[in-house]
Amino acid sequence: MNSMSRIASDSDLPTSLRAQSKLKTRRRVLDAARKLFMERGYEAATIRDIASEAGLSTGAVFASFIDKTDLFNVVMAEDFQRQVEATQEAARPDAKVEEAILAIFEAGYRFHGAQLPLLQAAVSLSWSHGLGGEFGDRPSFGLAMDALGDILARGVEAGELKGDAEQLRLAAEILWDTYVSNYRRALFDGWDVDRLIERIGQQTRLILSSLR
Questions:
Q1: Sign of the dihedral through C-alpha 93, 98, 102, 105
Q2: For 89-93, what is the mean pLDDT?
Q3: CA-CA distance, 180 to 172, in Å (whole number)?
Q4: What is residue 38's predicted lDDT score, i.e. its pLDDT?
Q5: Going by C-beta distance under 8 Å and a sequence separation of 6 or more, which residues neighbour residue 121?
Q6: What phi, psi does 185 have (nearest 5°)?
Q7: 180 near 168, Cβ under 8 Å?
Q8: What string of DSSP letters covers 60-81?
Q9: Per residue in 114-162, pLDDT tens?
């Protein structure tokens, strides 16, 4: 029997098994990437290194991700998604707008405060790729806009805030930009999590005052 006939390729597998195989491969790549981004930073962690850490070929990495930036963005988006889900589970249903927003931001600062090397990589990437790399194409931006937009819209419905859809969108973007920019204080000025939380509280109250 030819050796090739004894080895099942992805195309030989049933559709459901093939999909499961691709998901497992994607998970291995993401786990390996997250580990190396934490240890080495964005620039030093190569696709070849990530593939080796995952026990895969570089081709397997590119089958799931366009490039290293795409891979890094997904790692960060997963982190933010977990952050939002954890906050939503703990949030009170009757929470006011300010309380709900600060719960997300506090969870983020506490989550990322324990993994500053990965955060350093995110900042490095945003600087090297410009504003679009940080706020435009990154999946976490879309997740943030959805989460913050929902909270602001509920605030309008409850009579706590005023504003049309465009104003709420702008407020959500300003809140997110402010939250992200504060991380530089932790990286370069030595701010601890409690100080970040105090500052974002002040900033959030000021931003929301324009919608009162």
A1: positive
A2: 63
A3: 12
A4: 84
A5: 37, 38, 41, 42, 72
A6: -65, -40
A7: no
A8: HHHHH-SSHHHHHHHHHHHHHH
A9: 777 777 777 666 655 544 444 334 556 777 788 899 999 999 999 999 9
